[in-house]
Design goal:
Blueprint lengths: L2 H13 L5 H10 L23 H15 L2 H23 L1
Helix pairs in contact: 1-2, 3-4
């Protein structure tokens, strides 16, 4: 999934009432993953159309939350992971 696709999915979820703006906050942060940090200017838009493994990022975050014993973050990340996994499965099934 690209950053652009993830942002579109988030917006669609909010507009359809399947997700509130408050519920979208952990997903919004994911859209920045993979952004090149050059230190000057703004990144070009090409990175937004490059596939990125958000589920792997979430899995790493879940492992980190477990290691730190942060139950609140763990529950949040597991919830986000489950929802994106369901969405990905639904998309691949057609």
């Amino acid at each position: 999934m690209t950053s652009h696709e993830l942002r579109k999915w988030i917006n669609d979820q909010i507009l359809s009432g399947k997700m509130t703006v408050a519920e979208s906050s952990p997903y919004i942060g994911l859209t920045l993953n993979g952004m090149p940090l050059t230190g000057v200017g703004s990144p070009d838009d090409a990175w937004q159309n490059q596939p990125h493994d958000y589920l792997a990022d979430l899995q790493a975050g879940i492992s980190g939350a477990r290691w730190r014993g942060n139950e609140q973050e763990l529950r949040l990340l597991e919830s986000v992971w489950a929802r994106l996994t369901r969405e990905q499965e639904a998309t691949t099934r057609g």
